[in-house]
Design goal:
Helix content is about 35%, strand content about 10%. The protein has two domains: about 10-200, Rossmann fold (3-Layer(aba) Sandwich); about 235-420, NAD(P)-binding Rossmann-like Domain (Rossmann fold, 3-Layer(aba) Sandwich), CATH 3.40.50. The protein has helices at about 20-30, 40-45, 60-65, 100-110, 125-140, 180-190, 200-230, 235-245, 265-275, 280-290, 295-310, 335-345, 360-365, and strands at about 10-15, 30-35, 65-70, 80-85, 115-120, 150, 170-175, 195-200, 315-320, 350-355, 380-385, 405-410, 420. By secondary structure, it is α/β, with parallel strands linked by helices. It is globular, with a radius of gyration of 23 Å.
């Protein structure tokens, strides 16, 4: 028998990152919610009211009824388990399901008759029932759709976006049985102001998430390819796009570095599944290939501009503004800025990186980079605006430029008279 939707409902959230924490806080407004994360440092920070992802405030954390722990046994009384762990890719750009399968093992040890396991992590179509359910059955010794049930409701979190927040975005839901689908849809509808969309199957819901980011990736790859072409024609891509955007049905995407845990990763999940079934997705992988070239393009363009100004390359100093994968958030996962740093170093350039939003210890541990704290301590021959954090837009870069300084704007947000090149 499925659980009842009531204030007594006990929900366990596995993974308290960018997705899990806001979800846990939203559900805790109406239900009994227990949050689990295997990262003890993360748990300790949250207990102090500190959310390093900047998705929530100290006031929200302290005032909430959310119970959090690094001990999964705290979730044993729950009847709903929601898994929100990362789904990265490996060095060969293949899906790395290890966090997802580990979380499934944790939940499998807790499962009881009538429990529901909901997955929010981005996966390829079929992953929930083909890869995760067998783990749940093996560990719990229970039978799928007889003793326990599953659902998939893809996350739509946009880190650093104060407008498109959890409750304001329509939530796709699904379930392994019609009754489960109805219950899960009602559960999310109870906290999502924007409403829900109930998909007819778990696979449909999984596929919808995969194509959301693949579509955006392909669209960005188109304008990135335009940037590569127009650079050879000595045409400013931003001005071209501004002119084209005057047509009512023009899709106004902008060129740039495409990293992060979604757009830069999810298309590989979709392509992986398609290739397993014998189909090679040309458009999706072509788009990925173009977007993966952009860091090298930025570096090569900057080197050419330095040569044109007779700036000594080897031994020069470069300042990278930003290392997170997008503006106004501290997330450094799959950031393409590190590729720029590494390529500049190969030219013998001494690179400093400044990012007040990124966590210093995390950057040092993951990328072996010590973030600087003062951008005015030295003179730079190359300055690259890599990430358009709001506070960067208040900087007078004109005063930081010398006759032998190149300023390159990857986001086309700085004053045109300041920059020597931009995407």
């Amino acid at each position: 028998m499925l659980p009842q939707l009531s204030p007594d409902l006990k929900i366990g959230i596995i993974g308290l990152g960018y997705v899990g924490l806001p979800l846990a806080l939203a559900f805790s407004e109406k239900y009994n919610v227990f949050g689990y994360d295997s990262d003890i440092d993360r748990i300790n920070s949250l207990l102090l009211g500190i959310d390093k992802t900047l998705q929530t405030s100290e006031d929200e954390l302290i005032k909430s009824n959310l119970v959090i722990s690094a001990d999964p046994e705290e979730l044993r009384a729950c009847t709903i388990y929601i898994i929100t762990v990362p789904t990265p890719i490996d060095q060969n750009k293949k899906p790395d399901l290890s966090p997802l399968l580990s979380a499934s093992e944790v939940v499998g040890k807790l499962l009881k008759d009538g429990d529901i396991v909901i997955y929010e992590s981005t996966v390829y179509p079929g992953c929930t029932e083909e890869d995760c359910v067998p783990v749940l059955e093996r560990v719990s010794k229970l039978t799928y759709n007889l003793n326990f049930f599953c659902a998939y409701s893809p996350e739509r979190v946009s880190p650093g976006d104060p407008v498109h927040t959890l409750k304001s975005i329509i939530k796709v839901t699904s379930g392994s049985t019609p009754e489960t689908a109805d219950f899960v849809d009602s559960l999310y509808a109870s906290i999502i102001r924007a409403g829900t969309h109930k998909a007819s199957s778990i696979k449909i819901a999984e596929a919808s998430k995969a194509i959301e980011n693949a579509q955006r990736d392909v669209n960005i790859s188109f304008v990135n390819e335009l940037a590569l072409m127009f650079d050879k024609m000595d045409i400013d891509t931003t001005e071209v796009l501004s002119a084209a955007a005057t047509k009512w049905n023009f899709l106004n995407f902008k060129p740039g570095l495409v990293g992060g845990h979604c757009i830069g990763v999810d298309p590989y999940y979709l392509a992986y599944k398609a290739e397993l079934l014998g189909y090679h997705p040309r458009v999706i992988l072509s788009g990925r290939n173009v977007n993966d070239q952009m860091a090298s393009f930025v570096v090569n363009k900057c080197i050419k501009l330095m040569v044109q100004k007779n700036i000594q390359i080897n031994g020069s100093g470069a300042l990278l503004m930003g290392i997170t994968f997008k503006e106004n958030c501290p997330d450094i996962r799959n950031s393409k800025v590190i590729e720029i740093v590494n390529e500049l170093r190969q030219f013998g350039i001494d690179v400093d990186v400044y990012d007040p939003l990124a966590e210093r210890e995390q950057v040092a541990g993951q990328y072996d980079i010590s973030l600087i704290t003062d951008i005015h301590e030295r003179k730079y021959q190359l300055i690259i605006l890599a990430v358009a954090h709001d506070e960067f837009l208040d900087i007078d870069f004109g005063k930081m430029k010398y006759p032998d300084t190149i300023l390159f704007d990857t986001r086309a947000v700085l004053k045109r008279e300041w920059v020597d090149g931009r995407l």
